[in-house]
Amino acid sequence: MGRLSLLVFGAGAIGRGYLPWVFPPDQYEYRYVEADPMMRTRLSESGRFTTFKTVNGEYEALEVPVAECLAPGESASALSKVDAVITAVGPRNVRSLGNTLRGLSLPVVCCENDSAVPRRLAAATGNARVVLGIPDVIASNTAPDRLLAVDPLGLVTEDGECFVDQAVSDLGGNCHYVDEEELDNQWRAKLYIHNTPHCIAAYLGSVRGVSYLHEAMDHPRIHAVVQGVMDEMARMLELRYRMNQGFVRWYSGKELRRFSNTLLYDPVARVAREPFRKLAHNDRLIGAAELCLSCGVVPENVILGIMAAFWYEASDDPDINIRYLRAALEPSEFLRMIIRLRPGEALYEIVLDRWDQNVATLSELRS
Amino acid sequence: MTHTSELQAALAAAVSAGNLLLDYYDEKLAVSTKESMRDIATEVDRLAEERIIKALREQADPDIAIFTEEQGRVGDAGGSREWFVDALDGTVNYVNRIPFFSVSVALALNGHPEVGVVYNPMVSDLYYAATGIGVFKNQMRLSIRDKVPEECLFAVAFSGKTFDPARRGQEFQLLGEVNDASRGCLRTGSAAMNLAYVAEGRLGGCWGKANKFWDVAAGLLLAELAGARVQFRHVDGEQPLVNYLATVPSAWDFIYERAQSALALKEA
């Protein structure tokens, strides 16, 4: 079998940093579709980039040739040349791919942080071969200066694992093709033991004013809160899903080490991006807290993390309006109108009850 | 230039007034009539307006004059920036307990809106926009999707009966023509909400003749920043009255051609 050709939507942390380790460039040809014009120009001019993987405290380099890098409107020309499509553009941006991919029968792997994305994209495109991919990895969209000196387009990833629906196992590569049950299991672990504490570490890091996740985890209070979040999630997963506690403990330990990985240079701004999406009722913050409460676990650490998300203030974030709303509205109005929690329900009452205390904690972190 | 503090002040003022409207929603209110039978005011209009003035004075530059529906201009004229406030847009709906009304607060620079908030407290729909920041509903950023006029629902806000009465028939004729050539044309009773709905994509367009600027200033900005095509024109030297049209791009010609003789949007 010759090299398979992949069209990857999104030349970011997962698309460039991680996927080439799963689908090695000596077996797969890479074409990208990227919205950022500067990145497109740089990739097209260079025709290659380097991804660095952290292994046992060292970096391992992999050079990736790029056949082409297209603008979103130009992707139709590439679809006839490829064997599979992979999306890594962020859940909000996948919506725009519906028209582009309509009528295709190629395998499409959605490496997105929302397990509902494949179902929606399959419905929009009429393609039954749209499946979920779960990269169990932290990948950064940048690299430390010494690696950027080697390759200005370089970026860093961990040595992770990738779980993909077995419906597209003919795609090959270094990933685990698993059945629906195992995919659900991996998704829950990723959502609640990775995503929830990961973004909370980032929001607390943002309050603290640091740039990278490992810097946030270096702060004892933040480390303790993140550990507390993992404990709350573990309890919930045991009570709600009967998830194997040995697996949960192993997963939690692995995640804590990852978040503290000083080689990764994972930007706080990347992980904290779009707080409103993460505050959606079925997502990693409000959703996780609601699940805890439904099991009788009061998730004090998750609630502090939710408050830190309310205080996220990156001026270039699409959800910058969180800052204006939080400043303008009373806490009860903010929770009711914006976060859509209902007065009288447990989470609304608990968040409101802890509001001043948690604001004080965030102020201490800032100083 | 962004308007962070003004936007926050307008948000706080609109929500505070909206809370008051909710408090009085089930009360039986004394109604006074102004220019026409449809142009009415209640004690709640005045109380909500005072609440907004207080909030704007406390939270934004107190030297900016405030133009309100009930009290007229509050503060000194002459500055380039002015607030335009309608504490209850849709008073007729409100007194009839039809849950479609809003609070509208806008900051205009030389007559052009720069900050706008429209709030329907009945459903907690909070629309807000500021130049340099964007347009939002609650937590969501808004950006309209274009569609052809045949797929659009439209809305109209009529002028006061006393404005240009000789040409009043044109307004009814336009409503009928658009109603029959699209998914329909509503007269909702809240011009501010019409424009907010254009910004959100619920309506394909709306227009109004000789509407009070405090009714529509915030909504015009919402629609414009969401990607609608918007044109408005001040039509009276003494009162702040505007004719306006706001539509999704593909519906512009459809309405504009029919509405031009009634709205006279282009300066002669």
Structure characterization notes:
The complex is a heterodimer of chains A (367) and B (268). With 367 residues, chain A is of the alpha/beta class. In chain A, 50% of the residues lie in helices and 16% in strands. Chain A contains 18 helices and ten strands. Chain A has helices at residues 13-22, 37-46, 76-79, 91-94, 97-101, 117-125, 145-150, 180-208, 213-217, 220-241, 245-259, 268-272, 275-278, 286-294, 300-310, 321-328, 331-338, 346-366, and strands at 4-9, 28-33, 48-55, 58-70, 84-87, 108-110, 130-136, 155-158, 161-165, 176-178. Chain A has a ten-stranded mixed β-sheet, sandwiched between helices. Chain A is globular and about 60 Å long. The mean pLDDT of chain A is 95. Chain B has seven helices and 15 strands. The interface between A and B is medium-sized, with 17 and 18 residues.
How would you sum up this structure in a few lines?
Chain A is α/β, with parallel strands linked by helices and 367 residues long. Chain A has helices at 13-22, 37-46, 76-79, 91-94, 97-101, 117-125, 145-150, 180-208, 213-217, 220-241, 245-259, 268-272, 275-278, 286-294, 300-310, 321-328, 331-338, 346-366; strands at residues 4-9, 28-33, 48-55, 58-70, 84-87, 108-110, 130-136, 155-158, 161-165, 176-178.
Note the topology.
The complex is a heterodimer of chains A (367) and B (268).
Chain A: E1 4-9, H1 13-22, E2 28-33, H2 37-46, E3 48-55, E4 58-70, H3 76-79, E5 84-87, H4 91-94, H5 97-101, E6 108-110, H6 117-125, E7 130-136, H7 145-150, E8 155-158, E9 161-165, E10 176-178, H8 180-208, H9 213-217, H10 220-241, H11 245-259, H12 268-272, H13 275-278, H14 286-294, H15 300-310, H16 321-328, H17 331-338, H18 346-366
Chain B: H1 4-24, E1 31-33, E2 40-42, H2 43-59, E3 65-68, E4 72-74, E5 81-89, H3 91-95, E6 102-109, E7 112-120, E8 125-130, E9 134-137, E10 140-141, E11 154-157, H4 168-180, E12 185-186, H5 191-200, E13 205-212, H6 213-226, E14 229-234, E15 241-247, H7 252-263
Parallel strand pairs in B: 3-5, 11-12, 11-13
Antiparallel strand pairs in B: 1-2, 3-4, 5-6, 6-7, 7-8, 8-9, 9-10, 13-15, 14-15
Helix pairs in contact in B: 1-2, 4-7, 5-6
